Amino acid sequence: xxxxxxxxxxxxxxxxxxxxxxxxxxxxxxxxxxxxxxxxxxxxxxxxxxxxxxxxxxxxxxxxxxxxxxxxxxxxxxxxxxxxxxxxxxxxxxxxxxxxxxxxxxxxxxxxxxxxxxxxxxxxxxxxxxxxxxxxxxxxxxxxxxxxxxxxxxxxxxxxxxxxxxxxxxxxxxxxxxxxxxxxxxxxxxx
Length: 191
Fold this sequence. Notes:
The protein is an alpha/beta fold. It has helices spanning 17-30, 61-72, 89-98, 136-152, 173-189, and strands spanning 4-9, 34-39, 75-81, 105-106, 115-116, 122-129, 161-166.
C-alpha cells in the first residue's frame, strides 16, 4: 500500500520560497507516494473563528476538502515561514477553523483531557525565516511549540520532525541548492 502524504504550503503569498520548496517535495513524493497538496494562498476562507466554539460556523468548501485530506493522510508535511516569531495569521486561522472539536479532538463528560482523534499520523514541519542562522532555533521555538505540541500532538499526531531553513535573505545560491536537495531527499523517502 502506498503512503498517503498531505503537503501544505502554509505561506499566504502566492509566490514564495516556501511554494518552491513545496513544489520540489511534492514532485519527488508523487513518484513514490500518493500526494494531496494545498497552497494556503489559494484557499478562500474566513480565517477568523469569530464565535469560538460557542456557535457553529459553516465551513467553506476548501476547509471541508482540507479536513478530508487530513483524515486521509498518513503523513502531513507543513511548510511555513516564521513571521514575527509566529505563524502567518492565515495559517493559524486554517487550524482554528479546520481542527475543530469532534474532528481533531473531543472532550468526554467532565474529563479536561481531550480524546485525540488524529492518531496514527506522522508529520514534518519545514520552517523558513529571514533571521540569521544563530537565531533560528530561538525564533522557531514558539512556532514549533504552537504548531507541533499544541496543535498537531494535541490532536494525536506524532511529534513532528523539524527542518529549519534560513536566513533566506542572506542565503547564497549554494545554501538554497542544499535546501532544495534536502527537500528532494525528503520527498523521495516520504518523510
